[in-house]
Structures are given as C-alpha cells and as structure tokens.
Amino acid sequence: MIRHLLFRHYWWLALGCAAAVVIFSWRMATTDRLAVVGAALPALLGACYFAQQQKLAETELFRDLFTRFNERYDRLNERLQVILDRSRFDGDRAAAIDYFNLCAEEYLFFTEGYIHPKVWRAWCRGMRHYLERDPFRALWIREVEEDSYYGLTMEEIRKGAGH
C-alpha cells in the first residue's frame, strides 16, 4: 500500500527533498553550496524518472493481471451460478476448485502490492457472494484447512470487502 502512496505522490516527495537540499546547502558553512545543489538535483530527477518508469511497468502488469483474472472468472461465472442455484455440485466440483484457485492467485498478487485496493475490495465482495453460501461454503471450509490458498481465508476476504 505504501507503493501506491509513493507512486501517487513522488513528485511532491521530490520537491520536498529538493527544498531540503537547498535549505541544507544554504546553511552549510562552505562556498560549495551551488555544487551540492547541482549534484542533488540530477539525482532527484533520476529518482523521479525511475519512479515514473516503475509506475508505468506496474500499471501494465496490473492491467495484464486484471484482464487475465477477469477472463478466467468470466469462463467460470455461469458454472458457478448454476452450482449456487442448485445448491449442490452435481459433478461440477472442479469449477469451484478452479474458482478457489483464482481467488487465491488474486490474493497473492494483492498481498504483493500489484492489485489496487479498490479492485481487491470489489473482488472480495464477489468472493463473499459464493463463499458464504452452500455448497461453496462447506467445500471452502474443508479446502482452506489444507492451507493451499496462499493464506487466503474467509477472515481475509471479509476484511478485504470492508466488513
């Protein structure tokens, strides 16, 4: 989450650092004040360029992840809804496991900071739609005991959904 904050405000941070360098150099008891400022400003500009390029790369990664996760969900959605409507699996348990794996992968990328918190909140609310209802709830409880979903639990989903 700190990453999102830094990427949003890196210009302000750079301006603050530049101001600090100018103030520091002004208070120095030397005649090389201009040299200090002249050395610091390119370093700050370089840091801004790096932050901008990193933000762009992570935005592209997010877009790719977001698209792939939504495509996978779209392929599962109809089968999941049929299971929910029937309140039983009828041989379609694999769709639920595929959905659990999708949710866990989303969680993993969220915990690594690559999924925006607003997107994660929306996804968690969608997860609750299924995981708080049978037959998904019963299967999820059994599956999560195996700890094979990168630490994703119903508590994490509820926290992510803002409830």
What's the structural domain tally?
A: 1
Query: How many beta-strand elements?
Result: 0
Number of helices: 6
H/E series, N to C? HHHHHH
How large is the share of residues in beta strands? under 5%
Residue stretches low in confidence (pLDDT < 50, at least 5 long) are: none
Class of secondary structure makeup: mainly alpha
The description of the largest β-sheet is: none
What's the average pLDDT? 88
Give the radius of gyration: 24 Å
> Given the C-alpha coordinates, what overall shape results?
elongated
Structure explained in plain terms:
- The protein is mostly helical and 163 residues long.
- It has one domain (2-161).
- 80% of the residues lie in helices and 0% in strands.
- The chain is built from six helices and no strands.
- The chain has helices at 2-27, 33-86, 93-111, 117-131, 136-144, 154-161.
- Helix 1 (2-27) runs antiparallel to helix 2 and helix 3 (93-111) packs antiparallel against helix 4 (117-131).
- The protein is elongated and about 80 Å long.
- The two termini are 19 Å apart.
- 12% of the residues are buried.
- The model has no long low-confidence stretch (mean pLDDT 88).
Task: Write a concise synopsis of the structure shown.
With 163 residues, this protein is mainly α. Helices cover 80% and strands 0% of the residues. The mean pLDDT is 88.
